Amino acid sequence: MSILLDKNTRVVIQGMTGKEGSFHAREAIKFGTKIVAGMTPGKGGQEFDGIPVFNRVIDAVEKEGANASGIFCPAAFAADAILEAAEAGIKLIACMTEGVPVLEMVKVKKALRGTGSRLIGPNCPGITTPGVGKIGFMPNFIHKEGNVGIVSRSGTLTYEVIYQLTSLGIGQSTSIGIGGDPIVGTTFTDALELFESDSQTDLVVLIGEIGGTAEEEAAQLIKKNMTKKVVTFIAGQTAPPGKRMGHAGAIISGGKGTAEEKVKTLKDAGAIVESNPANIGMAAKRTLEEQGLL
Amino acid sequence: MREYGIPVPKGSVTKRASQAGKIASDLGSEKVVIKAQIHAGGRGKGGGIKLASSPEEAEKAAQEIIGMQLVTHQTGPEGKKVKKVLIEEAQEIRQELYVGIVIDRSQSSEQPVIMASAAGGMDIEEVASKTPEKIIKVGANPVTSFSIFQGRKIAFGLGLDKPLIGELSAILNNLYRLFIEKDASLVEINPLIITENNRFLALDAKINFDDDALYRHPRIKGLRDPDEEDPLEVIAKEAEVNYIKLDGNVGCMVNGAGLAMTTMDLIKMAGGEPANFLDVGGTASPERIEKAFRILTSDKNVKAILVNIFGGIVRCDRVALGIIEAASNMDLKLPMVVRLQGTNSEEARKIMAESTVRFEVAEGLYEAAEKAAKMVI
């Protein structure tokens, strides 16, 4: 078993008739994903490559049995699209849209509590399970089925790491890009918990970056609850401190958020920290070998 | 702030020192303060804030401040040139408070947090790191928004006199409304003073706005001051390229922010110094690539270029065409390392090999950085 996506996942694409939505829906179908419906307000009744398009998400749920959604709509409508999917009872919502105002995400995240819907993103490449399917736009050819779970705040850097693994002959159970925004639906700790309880996953690669406290929170969970090894990399070690204004950011983070702080916290928690991004795949391979899991 | 009912002193801004005397005498206040207007804190310590007791003194102070290169801990060592000053009535200060609102990203919160401290004024960051208990924080759930009890919690926590409790609560509530209605990511008043007459006044404030929400705030968008931004970064913004200038000499062009930061890390690891952060974005077209090239080469410190593209949505063959077009249009002479990996990278390599553009190819991540670093040594 992988996490979140399986053979029963039936995907509706919100914004399917748009430029991005249509291109990536076709790519996902090539990858084997069951895309059962599209949704674009005003285009209901049309077909897209033989797939029905609806005006409302609820129609895709009732008529086509959709239970997952991929959102590709413009930023101004993304929060609305997430809420519509959740209200329609969609359990897995991946929002790829970039540029959603932070205060909208603050509200959406609170609104999703207790609904049973899981959000991935926004501003993320989505989720891919090789051999099953994908929601989002990770390139198809980089993946290979296997036992390494990947969770990342980045986009292209994630592809890079997946590609390194695949080139070394190491496959992935599931790869999740959680998105780089200040407030995201699924966090590092959520993903780590899912991988910990997934029988297909033997090792997790976590790609973090400077800013925020997500890596520190991940470190706490690794220390307390993870029996599986976690290989990590923190991007932005040489980035100069931002030209920030005011003091509130520094006050709220209390000195956290720097690369050194994150590396130290992760090491202390027992994670393997690779400092050379070109060697992340190698670090994962070595760790699997040491554990006799290759 | 005035619009939101937050008390601020009377005053006005000028670019001309000769106006400062008139502004000061019009204020009718015995003493005035002349404050440098730049987008950075720590101005007082850097000599950007002066007190004056007469219009003549005000003019003299304005003369000294306008045109100075003001260096504070938030401007970087090169400082910022002061082009404007604010002249406002001076206040008799009984106490300085700090109040601020920011979004707390930590998982247990993920909502706006209102912060206050009785130790306001200068060095608030030091207060935060050395004595965090002196800062009172309350989270505001967007559903219930800011509640009166939270205002009381802060006001009593600060140990204020009774008559001031309700007033501070109202100021915080107004500040919270401003934060939400204007899509701010940071609002901060430091100091919020209590005057000798027991009134609150916001003497200095900073507001950051969420770039992603500016589309619905045209008035705030209009407040942008290009003088306060790096000219190259302004051009980049218009080209929708994410660019930050740094001090090194290896210019880099990458797709994706995470990979761009990683490429910078690698350049440094290989013994070079990155000249910039540049993310061409997820849908880099040949036009955008040319613009990106123009931006990164207009930094005269750049002695070599590293292109690192991992094609997902971006197709490498189109990137290759963009590079060739840009290089020939611009008559690019700088040595260049190109790494194109991912979608259509084979085609891209063929296109690059057949072109007249001079460059070195790299397959691996580290190899690319090493080759670029060698070019500048």
Strand fraction band of chain B?
25-35%
Strand line-up of the largest beta sheet of chain A: 3-4-2-1-5-6-7
Structural class by helix and strand composition of chain B: alpha+beta
Helix content of chain A: 25-40%
Mean pLDDT of chain B: 91
Q: For the terminal residues of chain B, how far apart are their CA atoms?
A: 52 Å
Largest interface: A-B, 67 and 70 residues
- Order of SSEs of chain A, N→C? EHEEEHEHEHEEEEHEHEHEHHEH
End-to-end separation of chain A in angstroms reads 18 Å
Number of helices of chain B: 12
Write the layout of secondary structure elements.
The complex is a heterodimer of chains A (294) and B (377).
Chain A: E1 11-14, H1 19-30, E2 35-39, E3 47-48, E4 51-54, H2 57-64, E5 68-71, H3 75-87, E6 92-95, H4 102-112, E7 118-120, E8 126-129, E9 133-136, E10 145-152, H5 156-167, E11 172-177, H6 188-196, E12 203-209, H7 214-225, E13 229-235, H8 248-253, H9 259-268, E14 272-273, H10 280-290
Parallel strand pairs in A: 1-2, 1-5, 2-4, 5-6, 6-7, 10-11, 10-12, 12-13, 13-14
Antiparallel strand pairs in A: 3-4, 8-9, 8-11
Helix pairs in contact in A: 3-4, 5-10, 6-7, 7-9
Chain B: E1 11-14, H1 17-27, E2 32-36, E3 49-52, H2 55-65, E4 69-70, E5 80-81, E6 85-89, E7 93-104, E8 111-117, H3 124-130, E9 135-139, H4 148-157, H5 162-181, E10 184-195, E11 200-202, E12 205-209, H6 218-221, H7 231-238, E13 242-245, E14 250-254, H8 257-269, E15 276-279, H9 286-297, E16 304-311, H10 316-330, E17 336-342, H11 345-354, E18 360-361, H12 365-376
Parallel strand pairs in B: 14-16, 16-17, 17-18
Antiparallel strand pairs in B: 1-6, 2-3, 2-6, 4-5, 7-8, 7-10, 8-9, 10-11, 10-12, 13-15
